[in-house]
From TrEMBL:
<dbReference type="GO" id="GO:0051539">
    <property type="term" value="F:4 iron, 4 sulfur cluster binding"/>
</dbReference>
<dbReference type="Pfam" id="PF14815">
    <property type="entry name" value="NUDIX_4"/>
</dbReference>
<dbReference type="GO" id="GO:0046872">
    <property type="term" value="F:metal ion binding"/>
</dbReference>
<dbReference type="GO" id="GO:0034039">
    <property type="term" value="F:8-oxo-7,8-dihydroguanine DNA N-glycosylase activity"/>
</dbReference>
<dbReference type="InterPro" id="IPR004035">
    <property type="entry name" value="Endouclease-III_FeS-bd_BS"/>
</dbReference>
<keyword id="KW-0234">DNA repair</keyword>
<dbReference type="GO" id="GO:0000701">
    <property type="term" value="F:purine-specific mismatch base pair DNA N-glycosylase activity"/>
</dbReference>
<keyword id="KW-0408">Iron</keyword>
<dbReference type="GO" id="GO:0006284">
    <property type="term" value="P:base-excision repair"/>
</dbReference>
<dbReference type="GO" id="GO:0032357">
    <property type="term" value="F:oxidized purine DNA binding"/>
</dbReference>
<dbReference type="Pfam" id="PF00730">
    <property type="entry name" value="HhH-GPD"/>
</dbReference>
<dbReference type="InterPro" id="IPR003651">
    <property type="entry name" value="Endonuclease3_FeS-loop_motif"/>
</dbReference>
<keyword id="KW-0411">Iron-sulfur</keyword>
<dbReference type="Pfam" id="PF00633">
    <property type="entry name" value="HHH"/>
</dbReference>
<dbReference type="GO" id="GO:0035485">
    <property type="term" value="F:adenine/guanine mispair binding"/>
</dbReference>
<dbReference type="Pfam" id="PF10576">
    <property type="entry name" value="EndIII_4Fe-2S"/>
</dbReference>
<dbReference type="GO" id="GO:0006298">
    <property type="term" value="P:mismatch repair"/>
</dbReference>
Amino acid sequence: MRDMLISADLLAWYDVHARELPWRVGPKEDRLPDPYRVWLSEIMLQQTTVAAVKAYFAKFTETWPTVQDLAAAEDADVMAAWAGLGYYARARNLLKCARVVAGELNGAFPDNREGLQKLPGIGPYTSAAIASIAFGQRETVVDGNVERVMARLYAEETPLPTSKPLLRDYAEAQTPKNRAGDYAQAVMDLGATVCTPKSPACGICPIRSHCNAQSQGIERELPKKLPKAAKPVRRGIAYVVRREDGAVLLETRPEKGLLGGMLGWPGTDWAETEPVSEPPIDADWITLNEEVRHAFTHFHLRLTVHVAEVRQDARAFRGGFVDPSDFRANDLPTVMRKVHALSSSS
DNA sequence: TACACGTGGCT
DNA sequence: TAGCCAAGTGT
């Protein structure tokens, strides 16, 4: 039986190869990072790549340097700043969490997993990540990277998601008493840069000698996954209304559900059936030839775009007109930006 | 317990 | 091109 413990080799690798990231304190620095910045980065990094997060993290920490600043922000400003990053429930919960921490906890995040996980938007992964990275607690962090590394290390052929409890057991057995935060980040760095899903770079892997999948030559086949259901196609209509003065008709979407709390063009529901037109204002409508296509997590969307010019005194049934000086396409979620781009080019 | 929930980059 | 994939959480 080979020696399966990886933490020593992995930490030695991390000391040399740790990526420099804006929310990270270097492995050689003898201090812990600001919990606010750790929390903010971990929320942004949920199901989101480092490359996508960097600009948003810079914008947020510049605009709201402390949790008190963020707690005092206007909801619409935070949603606009988050626009484009996706999973907008994260932004709504981010504000809720900031207000609890600033209001009820005197600005201090809980220093342990149990306390952290009671806060909005913080689940099993994020509570362990903050507790270990920001507070030095020995907690086991399990994300997609860790699951992949453990599946290969132990040559676990049980498919995900069935294997989740097993992989967590493996991860807990590996977590060291000391430097748990560095170790957690080291496994995630390894998964992101070496033990990648498609073509793992086993030739430069610091824990290659421990890896059962590598010795069996099955690393590219792990972790196994159950097949996913095909994505249905949904259709709808988006209405772009321009007033004589250049104002555009927008509405804030309901708090719950898809794109909740975000600005968007009025439109029909999105369904697998052909949409029935329900224009938000009386006007002469023009249907654009090209349609907007967008892929969500669980369905594909095809939006037909209807545009109209209306008089200054026109009254809408829903939504509100936004002056050109107040309108920024970047405040919209991406699918709504696509609608805007198409209507502007036509 | 499944499913809802975004987006952009890569293959 | 279409599917896969990413530092998950809430319901």
